[in-house]
Specification:
Layout lengths: L1 E6 L5 E7 L1 H4 L5 H15 L58 H17 L3 E4 L9 H10 L5 E5 L4 H7 L5 E5 L5 H6 L2 E5 H11 L1
Helix pairs in contact: 2-3, 4-5
Pfam families: Ribosomal_L4 (PF00573)
Subunit structure: Part of the 50S ribosomal subunit.
GO biological process, one term: translation
Length: 206
């Protein structure tokens, strides 16, 4: 089992914690990680872009000039793609970009992402993130004590004070254990996880 240091909100190490190899020590599957990120980004796309095809554009029914004798290149319609006001070749039409991954593939990709953070020493465990009031400045001080800037902060429970305190800090996002995903884990430089959240993740995925 991998051992990591547990820090308090002042940035001081208070204890050592063992991480489950079945969650934080698996072999990283880069292909599945890539597919999971691709799926998440694809599923976000609206797919509502639209341009008119030749069958939909108005006008252009009459041949603009006769076939021969004018000195111009032959033209059949003023709505051909090369004309101003003409149609778009292979115009985009509304479509669904989403695709599915198997449940086991999603699970393996998430565990690979978590394990990669441990291997790269980009996982920081804190004993707790408890705030007496909603205060962005205090949350920023905690991140400064941990020497963290761009981070995904995973909380073990729905702590409204911590969530709202972090909301206005650029490059910081909070999440709960049931909403973490591969894209967010890789997007942020550091993964900050509370001790409670680590145990919750291990209970679900171990």
């Amino acid at each position: 089992m991998a051992k990591v240091s547990v820090f308090n909100m002042e940035g001081k190490e208070v204890e050592q914690m063992e991480l489950a190899d079945s969650v934080f020590g698996v072999e990283v599957n880069d292909h599945l990680v890539h597919m999971a990120v691709l799926q998440q980004l694809a599923n976000k796309r609206q797919g509502t872009q639209k341009a008119k095809t030749r069958s939909e554009v108005r006008g252009g029914g009459r041949k603009p000039w006769r076939q021969k004798g004018t000195g111009h290149a032959r033209q059949g319609s003023t709505r051909s793609p090369q004309w101003t006001g003409g149609v778009v070749v292979f115009a985009p039409t509304p479509r669904d970009y989403s695709f599915k991954l198997n449940r086991k593939e999603k699970r393996a990709a998430l565990l690979s992402a978590l394990s990669s953070r441990v291997q790269e020493n980009k996982l920081i465990v804190v004993d707790q993130l408890a705030f007496d009031e909603i205060k962005t400045k205090k949350f920023a001080e905690v991140l400064k004590n941990l020497k963290v800037e761009k981070a995904l902060v995973v909380l073990g429970q729905d702590d409204e004070k911590a969530i709202i305190s972090a909301r206005n800090i650029p490059d910081v996002k909070t999440a709960q254990t049931n909403s973490i995903n591969v894209y967010d884990i890789l997007k942020y430089n550091t993964l900050v996880v509370t001790k409670e959240a680590v145990k919750s993740i291990e209970e679900v995925y171990a």
